[in-house]
Write a structure and sequence with these properties.
- The protein has helices at 2-19, 22-39, 44-62, 76-79, 83-93, 98-105, 109-125, 131-138, 145-163, 171-180, 186-191, 195-221, 242-248, 252-262, 328-339, 402-411, 474-485, and strands at residues 268-277, 284-291, 295-302, 308-315, 345-354, 357-365, 371-377, 383-389, 421-429, 432-439, 444-450, 456-462, 493-502, 505-513, 517-524, 530-537.
- With 538 residues, the protein is of the alpha+beta class.
- A hairpin with a 5-residue loop joins β6 (357-365) and β7.
């Protein structure tokens, strides 16, 4: 039960932000914890997030408006978002991974990531979005001892109801029947009393809870008592001996074999993701696979013993065709050779697909504490991408502002003011900016910059194949689209600006958004005539 309480305390800020109310957040968390204990008494902490999202979704629909009065200033813009947007930001700020949130919601991790990015864009329109400020303000949402006591009582009440003997719900009916009977032997009526069964049930519950706490306490005593860090990054000081970790933990392949043993009634089509969560207590593998029954299964397996921790299922989006893929064992060998980490520790294996084709993606931990990411073509085994990240160097926060990053990116390809380009992407991840923009002739650029220095890392160019001699230009198309929407450039953020082919003619396709609406506009490339216009509520 203690693990469930600790998990609830960590999820408390997420519940409060989702519902926009401290009191509703506490009530919902208690209800979700009780539901998790009833549904998965062996591993209730794993079931808490799905139950919390399920109940929050209903309550947010019933009372979507947030109460901003008792929230810190930095968090108030979040409360102006719709409930789904508040949920996405809450997951981001409380370090709920896209994979965990997606599994709890029954969607893909990619969809969850898109929802988070969209919510952050909406937040920027509301003059919010500073993650450092929001995380700092989140500390003011305090979880008190009184909250823990109320949660504990709710869980115990749930366990009591679950373990109570059959028939205890008819106490009143039994008492009435006895009182109506002739009192020929009053002492006999006193000996047969229902409250005795209630007392026995309560004693059984207490014994069960004490036993559970003793067992989980023994398990925790075998590992450090400190709470796991807020992020999943493995710090070099934790890597005391990589060889020891390799000996303690199952390999990726062994974890997948254990998952196969758990799913004996299903036929596994492909393992889509295997991730080692070494900072969890106990350390575990999360193995995701798609089976021929059309379900995706997420198996949590003890990383040292291979014991089952949890198995969840949800509908699969599709079953990838992997008939011509190289075996995963060969891809792992290639990843280890490329990174020079034949003795490294595999942290993650993931299957994916993008414009370049299907791939295996790996994360490996070296004895130097650095994390190596390797992407291998799943059909040819060719190296696609390779990066090294040093987790010991925390983001300094001393990064150039977004507008300066846009200037640096534009200067890399043309000596133009910012207004002469349509910027469609600006995303900061750690110390890297990814910036996308389109010039007047339709040429699209995607540039990666060092967020601390502004130095260019990579430049991708997507040139236009159409004849643009008589075209009005992307800047004029932008002007016409904004006129139709009755908006100014300062009020919107563009997400798409390109030349495409439609019905044998070339057109401009523009997409932009405000905090309330998303706009899609298609214009004739030569005349500027608006062929399509849509405004969709966010």
């Amino acid at each position: 039960m203690q693990e469930l309480i600790s998990r609830a305390e960590k999820l408390y800020p997420a519940a409060v932000l989702y519902l926009g109310s401290k009191e509703r957040g506490k009530e919902t968390l208690r209800e979700a914890a009780a539901a998790a204990m009833r549904k998965a008494p062996a591993q209730p902490a794993e079931e808490l997030l799905p139950q919390l999202f399920r109940i929050c979704r209903t309550r947010a629909a019933e009372q979507p408006e947030a109460d901003v009065s008792d929230f810190p200033e930095a968090l108030r813009p979040i409360l102006s978002l719709p409930p789904a947007g508040r949920r996405s930001i809450a997951c981001l700020l409380t370090d709920i991974s896209a994979e965990d949130a997606a599994a709890a919601l029954g969607i893909s991790a990619g969809e969850q990531q898109q929802k988070t990015e969209k919510a952050m864009r909406q937040l920027s329109f509301l003059q919010g979005g500073d993650q450092n400020a929001m995380r700092f303000a989140l500390r003011e949402l305090q979880w008190t001892p009184e909250d823990e006591a109320a949660l504990t009582e709710s869980i115990r009440s749930s366990v009591s109801q679950q373990d109570a003997p059959a028939g205890t719900g008819n106490v009143r009916e039994i008492v009435r029947t006895q009182s109506a009977a002739p009192a020929e032997n009053p002492s006999q009526g006193r000996r047969v009393t229902v409250p005795l069964w209630v007392l026995i049930a309560g004693l059984l519950c207490i014994v069960t809870l004490l036993t559970y706490q003793a067992v989980t306490g023994l398990q925790r005593s075998r590992r450090p008592a400190a709470a796991p860090p807020e992020t999943e990054v493995i710090r070099p000081e934790n890597v005391t001996s990589l060889q020891t970790l390799r000996e303690e933990f199952l390999t990726l392949g062994e974890a997948q074999e254990k998952a196969g043993e758990l799913l004996t009634e299903q036929q596994i089509s492909v393992f889509t993701s295997t991730k080692l969560r070494m900072n969890d207590i106990p350390p575990c593998y999360e193995v995701t696979c798609v089976c021929t029954d059309g379900q995706t299964y997420l198996c949590k397996i003890h990383a040292e013993t291979g014991a089952r921790l949890a198995v969840n299922a949800y509908p699969a989006e599709e079953i990838p065709d992997t008939a011509d893929w190289i075996p995963a064992e060969d891809a792992r060998s290639q990843a280890a050779a490329v990174s020079g980490l034949e003795e490294g520790l595999f942290l993650k294996e993931k299957l994916g697909h993008d414009s370049e084709g299907a791939y295996y993606k790996y994360e490996l931990l070296g004895s130097d504490g650095r994390i190596y990411t390797v992407q291998i073509n799943s059909r040819t085994g060719m190296l696609i991408k390779y990066t090294v990240e040093d987790p010991s160097v925390a983001d300094s926060g001393n990064v150039i502002p977004p507008e300066e990053a846009q200037k640096q990116a534009l200067a890399r390809v043309a000596d133009l003011p910012l207004s002469d380009a349509v910027f469609t992407k600006i995303k900061q991840t750690g110390n890297v900016y990814l910036i996308g923009f389109t010039l007047d002739d339709g040429t699209q650029y995607t540039i990666e910059l060092d967020a601390r220095t502004g130095m260019t890392n990579t430049v991708d160019v997507n040139r236009v194949s159409a004849d643009t001699t008589d075209a009005i230009g992307i800047l004029r198309a932008r002007e016409l689209a904004l006129e139709r929407a009755a908006l100014t450039l300062e009020q919107v953020r563009f997400t798409k600006a390109k030349i495409d082919r439609s019905n044998a003619a070339y057109v401009y396709e523009l997409e932009f958004e405000t905090a309330e609406y998303e706009y899609e506009v298609t214009l004739n490339m030569k005349t500027g005539e608006i062929l399509k216009y849509r405004a969709l509520s966010q």
